[in-house]
Design goal:
There is one protein chain. The protein is of the alpha/beta class and 353 residues long. The chain has 3 domains: 38 residues; 116 residues, Rossmann fold (3-Layer(aba) Sandwich), CATH 3.40.50.720; 182 residues, no CATH class. Helix content is 46%, strand content 14%. It has 13 helices and 11 strands.
Length: 353
């Protein structure tokens, strides 16, 4: 007897929809007016020519509420940037601009910036700045956020997140347990290598990790490079004829990678993530392949989505970057577990690296 009529329901729904839309429009309008009155000061980081182009575009669209006040570049190029913006080349100049203008945002406009300017970006993030990656040329990822027509994404420059607390707990639990279980096997491998190949059974090499930070990667030594230059710049030794049968077995079975469990336990790496590479190749690939540098927004890993799809050794770098970025963009703890299970299953049919 007290049920609402269809007419009252329709009127109520219409009134609620109009009220919600009007309220949202009012909030949006007030927010846009506030951004126009008080835009957020920003620094544009990257090669001078690209940074100038992005800064000029952002200045032509004040409705985004971002006002570039300077360009940070390793080389000054022209004396001034877009619309007379100063080009900052030293840490002191950046610090002065940060304090005097109350900089709130940092725009990275080139893939190599995260690696080359990693310490600077972390320092700016610790100062309270939001760090954004802006694709100034060829968009390599899907995103809803745009700035003056350029796709952009906010970068997490924190020191301990990179996938969440759950991912780190999984890393510590699994790597610690595996290290305890396989420690006798590691001792056997070390003893055999010492007897068959001489001293120096552990191979240490600098790799680039999260946010462009270098770290020392550990492996069993299966090959002795001629010198440091070969170690840093030779792409692969999978076909090396001088490798002993035992070393070749370790490499083809990926058992030489077991020492990286210590890197995981230390926090240098994760169990799952993009494979870390040497600085020489990171610099080359970041310049050549769109989206490659974006892989460094998460901890590197022992295995990853690219590896379980066969992208190991001498395979397409462009495909690896695409799989790695897809993994990061869609990260979940369940995805990590699935990748680990598929990696374990693949160990029975090794292909080498």
């Amino acid at each position: 007897a007290q049920a609402l009529s269809a007419r009252i329901l329709v009127l109520g729904f219409t009134a609620q929809a109009l009220t919600a839309c009007t309220g949202r429009a009012a909030v949006h309008l007030l927010r846009r007016r506030a951004l126009l009155r008080r835009p957020r000061a920003a620094l544009v980081v990257g090669p001078a020519a690209t940074a100038q182009r992005v800064a000029a575009a952002v200045l032509r669209h004040p409705r985004y509420g971002v006002r570039p006040i300077g360009i940070v570049a390793e080389h000054p190029g022209h004396p001034d940037g877009a619309d007379g913006l100063p080009v900052l080349t030293t840490g002191q100049e950046v610090q002065r601009a940060l304090i005097q203008n109350g900089v709130r945002d940092v725009l990275c406009v080139h893939p190599s910036v995260r690696t080359a300017q990693g310490p600077l970006l972390r320092a700016l993030a610790e100062s309270g700045c939001a760090v954004w990656e802006v694709d100034a040329d060829t968009p390599s990822y899907a995103t809803r956020e745009q700035l003056a027509g350029f796709p952009c994404r906010r970068l997490d420059m924190g020191s301990g997140r990179g996938g969440g607390l759950g991912k780190r707990l999984l890393d510590i639990t699994v790597s610690g347990t595996l290290l305890l279980l396989v420690s006798p096997l590691l001792l056997v491998f070390a003893a055999v290598l010492r007897l068959t190949s001489g001293p120096g059974v552990v191979f240490r090499q600098e790799r680039i990790g999260r946010d462009g930070r270098p770290f020392t990667l550990l492996k069993f030594r299966t090959h002795r490079p001629v010198d440091e230059h070969e170690s840093a710049t030779r792409w692969s030794v999978a076909g090396e004829v001088r490798m002993s049968p035992f070393c070749r077995f370790l490499r083809e079975s990926s058992l030489d990678e077991l020492l990286q469990l210590w890197n995981v336990l230390r926090g240098d790496m994760s169990l799952v993530g993009p494979r870390p590479e040497r600085p020489y190749f990171v610099g080359q690939f970041s310049q050549t392949y769109p989206g490659y540098a974006a892989r460094h927004r998460m901890r590197t890993g022992i295995t990853g989505l690219a590896q379980i799809h066969g992208l190991r050794g001498d395979t397409s770098i462009e495909d690896r970057a695409r799989f790695d970025n897809a993994y990061i963009d869609n990260w979940s703890l369940w995805q990590d577990i699935c990748i680990l299970l598929r990696t374990a299953a693949a160990l029975v049919r090794p292909t080498g690296s």
